[in-house]
Amino acid sequence: MKLAIDADRLWASLDALGRIGRYRDEAAEVWGVNRLALTEADGEGRRHVVGLMKAAGLEVTVDRIGNVRARREGREKLRPVMIGSHIDSVPTAGRFDGCLGVLGGLEVVRSLADAGIVTRRPIVVGFFTEEEGCRFGTDMLGSAVATGRIPLERAYGLADRDGLNVRGELEKIGFLGGADVAIPAPHAYLECHIEQGPTLRAAGQDIGVVSGVQAISWHEVTITGKSAHAGTTPMELRADAGVAAARINLQLRAMIASGRYGAAMRATMGAIVPRPGLVNIVPGQVVATVDLRNPDDAAMRRAEADLIAFYEQVGREERVKVAWRQTARTESVPFAAPVQERIARAASARGLRHAPIVSGAGHDAQEMARICPAGMVFVPGENDGISHNPREYSTPEQCANGVSVLGDVALELAEEAGAE
Ligand code: GLV
Ligand code: MN
Ligand code: MN
Predict the structure, then answer these.
(1) From CA 51, how far away is CA 57, in angstroms rounded?
(2) Which of the listed CATH numbers 3.50.50.100, 3.40.50.1980, 3.40.630.10, 3.30.540.10 matches domain 7-213+332-414?
(3) Average pLDDT over residues 67-81
(4) Ramachandran region of residue 178, left (φ > 0), alpha (ψ -120 to 50) or beta?
(5) Could you tell me if the CB of 291 is within 6 A of ligand 1?
(6) Which of 27, 175, 240, 300 could form a disulfide with 66 if both were Cys (CB 3.0 to 4.6 A apart)?
C-alpha cells in the first residue's frame, strides 16, 4: 500500500527546523546549524517539534533522559510502530542529519490523517537525546539509555568540556521529563536518514536499504608532558605533548595503510586541544579524541589493541604520559532482514532504484535494534554526500523519496496483526 505524502510540506518543515540554531558559515557561504545537545538552541528546536507533534494531534511524552515520543492511537491495542531519529546536531551541521527522520515520521502521520487512515497499530514518532555525542562524549546517548545499554545515572553524570552535566542541562532547557526511560518494545522501529556519504549518489541509486551499522570506538586521550619555553629549552630536554599527539594521529594513517584492519577501516583524530596552546610554549598537555570505525568486529578489536600499544610506545619515546578512556563503544549491528526486504519492496513498488548499504555513521536505530526489529532507509546526498558540515544537502525529491518509502513500510507494518 502506498502512502501519499506532501513533499512540499516535508521540505517546509525541514526548512523551518533548520532555521533554529542557524549560523552563517562564511567559509562555506551557506547557513549552518548549531543545535548541540541540551543547549538553548536544542531546547528551542525541541519545543518547535513538540508543537508540531501536538498540532498533529499526537500525545507527547518526555522521559527522564529527555527522549520525546509522540503517539497516534491505532484501531487495536497492539505494540506501536515507531519512527524516530534525532534533532540535536553537531556544532557545524546542515539541516538534514536526524531531522529528516523525525520530520519524515511527522509527515507520515500527517499524511495518514489527510487520507483518513487509522492504522491497526499505534504509530509513535520520536526523537532521542544527544545522538551526536559531540557535547557529552557518548553518541546515541538517549536511545542507549532507553534500551538499557547505558544506565540512566551514568548518563546523568556525563559532563561537557565546561563541567556541565546531562541532568542539569536537561533540567535547564525544560526537558527532564517524568516518563520511565525504559522504552516499551515497539512492533518495529524505522528511521529515514541521509546517507552522509557519496555512495548512493555516485551509483545513481534513489534509496539505500541499510543492512546494518559498523562498529564504533571512541577514545579521549590525555597526553601530559612538560610545558616549557620554546626558544630556550633544548630539544632533547623536551616532553612535548603536541609531538606525541601528532605521532598518534599519523599512526592512525599508518594503520589504515597497513591493510591489517580491512579496506573499510576509518580512523580520525577529530579534536586536538593543546595547553596552554601558545606560539612560544612547548605544549604541556594535549587532550585529543580518536574515532575508529570498522564493519568487522574482529578487525576493530585488533585495531584497538594495536593503538593502545602504540599509546604506550609513544609515551615512552616522547617521555610523556598518555592516559586514555573509552567514551563510546558499539559493536556492528545488523538490521532485521524482514524489515530490509520490506524497504526494498516498497522502493521497487515506487520505481525507485535501491541498493543495500552498510551505514558508516552511528544511528539511534542500532540501539532500537536491541529490543525490536529495526531498519533504516537512506537517501543520497549532493556535494559528495558531505555531512556534519553546512554544505550537507539532499534535494526535495531525494527527501520525499525516502519519506515515501518510510511511510509505505510504516503503514504495512502498522496493519500487521499479531498477539501484541
Ligand atoms: C553520528 O553522527 C556519528 O558520529 O556517526
Ligand atoms: Mn544522524
Ligand atoms: Mn550526525
Answers:
(1) 10
(2) 3.40.630.10
(3) 98
(4) alpha
(5) no
(6) 175
Q: Sign (positive/negative) of CA torsion 249, 253, 254, 260?
A: positive
Length, in residues, of the chain: 420
- Distance of alpha carbon 311 from alpha carbon 329, whole angstroms: 18
- Write phi, then psi, for 117 (nearest 5 degrees): -95, 125
Residues of the chain with CATH 3.40.630.10: 7-213+332-414
Determine if ligand 1 sits within 6 Å of the CB of residue 132: yes
Answer yes or no: is the C-beta of 362 below 6 A from any ligand 1 atom. Answer: yes
CB contact set of 321 (below 8 Å; sequence gap of 6+): 223, 224, 225, 315
Cα(363) to centroid(ligand 3), Å: 8
pLDDT digit string, tens, across residues 236-278: 999 999 999 999 999 999 999 999 999 999 999 999 999 999 9
Q: How buried is 226 (Cβ within 10 angstroms: 0-12 exposed, 13-18 middle, 19+ buried)?
A: middle
Would you place residue 415 in the very low, low, confident or very high pLDDT band (cuts 50, 70, 90)? very high
